[in-house]
Specification:
By secondary structure, this protein is an all-beta fold. It is built from no helices and 32 strands. Helices cover 0% and strands 41% of the residues. The strands form eight sheets. Strands 8-9-10-11-12 form a five-stranded mixed beta sheet, with no helix packed on it. A four-stranded antiparallel beta sheet has the order 4-5-6-7, with no helix packed on it. A four-stranded antiparallel beta sheet has the order 13-14-15-16, with no helix packed on it. The chain is elongated, with a radius of gyration of 25 Å.
Length: 356
């Protein structure tokens, strides 16, 4: 039809109608454009470094689409949480200098970062990552820790500082008395009540923190050295020296996942322990006495059927890594595969979404 499209070295799109060229504007700033086309509705699409863009045939406005405002972030999704409506919130890194988090409602991802290009919401913190996300049941807010920028509460439109003294948190949880707990990086455990933080003695580098499902006001916290069940006054503690299967000079704990009646699953680099806080006893599962797929075990969650889900990433006793499970009698694994299946075996977090 004697018409043509081209993109110049400054990412400006031009349309030729057979006699003259019309400037349709830059689809993004800078160069490195790779392709241009037009669809059946007359919308023009351009691609290159920095994603893709569509020029609306009716309005003439360019809309950018890239990693920060479409689909998922790139790598290092360190935390996820579910709200009471089933929305998934995911912390992550959207590229160098671009932190924030995303929300998935079952159909669409919405970005919260500096570069949403009109399809998301801002994230007013100078950091590459959001490390911690937690839906707070008592008020419906999302607790977020922008890396090196302390803890904040987000109510859907505004961020409020929680006056947390640490730049980083390794995890937060709300107990049954609506107190917010945070596990710090190193020798640090606190709970937040009446706008004040109260410290609870804790040893080691923080790994994870979970709500106790039965005991009022109680949580479990884990470091590489200690697993602790506490309400701030009551304390049950086990350290690496208390596990005969571990060498306290070289071995350590990974994560804790509490279950009913004072029991909890505790991971180690030598196997998996089922711990009874009522009397201090435990059962230990390792490759030498069970069919557990590996020895470097990190418990992640327990599903309503009582099945424990864990990872075996970093184990030396197996060549198969993946998402593993234990139902009390049998072990199983969904292996990481090169094509299809589980895309990666280094899993940071797992949350359970109950559906009909």
């Amino acid at each position: 039809n004697n018409q043509a499209l081209l993109i110049d070295g400054n990412s400006v799109v031009w349309k030729f109608n057979g006699t003259s060229w019309q400037n349709l504007g830059a689809w993004k700033e800078g160069g490195f454009s790779y392709g241009v086309d037009i669809d059946a509705n007359g919308n023009i699409w351009a691609t290159g470094i920095g994603g893709a863009a569509k020029r609306n045939a009716q309005t003439g406005i360019w809309q950018r689409y890239r990693i920060t405002n479409t689909s998922q972030f790139t790598y290092w999704v360190e935390d996820i949480t579910l709200d009471n409506e089933g929305n998934v919130y995911m912390a992550g890194n959207a590229g160098t200098g671009v932190g924030g988090f995303q929300k998935f409602d079952g159909i669409r991802w919405t970005g919260f970062n500096e570069f949403t290009y009109g399809l998301g919401n801002p994230f007013p913190f100078p950091t590459d990552n959001a490390e911690v996300l937690y839906f707070r049941p008592s008020n419906g807010n999302i607790i977020v820790n922008p890396m090196f920028n302390n803890l904040h509460s987000w109510n859907g439109s505004n961020y409020t500082s929680l006056n947390y003294s640490n730049a980083r948190s390794e995890g937060v949880v709300e107990d049954s008395q609506n107190r917010l707990w945070s596990l710090g990086e190193y020798y640090d455990l606190k709970y937040y009540s009446n706008n004040n933080w109260t410290s609870v003695p804790f040893i080691g580098s923080g790994s994870n923190i979970k709500k106790d499902p039965a005991r009022p006001g109680t949580i479990w916290a884990c470091s590489e050295y200690q697993v602790l069940r506490t309400d701030g006054v009551y304390n049950f503690s086990k350290v690496t020296d208390d596990f005969s299967e571990l060498d306290p000079q070289s071995d350590g704990l990974t994560t804790v996942i509490p279950i009913n009646d004072g029991y909890a699953w505790v991971g180690t680099n030598q196997g998996l322990a089922k711990l009874n806080s009522n009397n201090g006893s435990y059962q230990f599962y390792s490759p030498s006495n069970s069919q557990i797929p590996g020895e470097n075990i990190s418990p992640l969650t327990v599903t309503p059927d009582g099945r424990l889900w864990f990872t075996n990433f970093g184990s030396n006793s197996t060549s198969v890594y993946g998402l593993c499970w234990f139902d009390g009698m049998n072990f199983g694994i969904f292996p990481q595969q090169q094509t299809g299946g589980l895309p990666h075996a280094q899993i940071y977090d797992l949350e359970v979404k109950n559906i009909q």
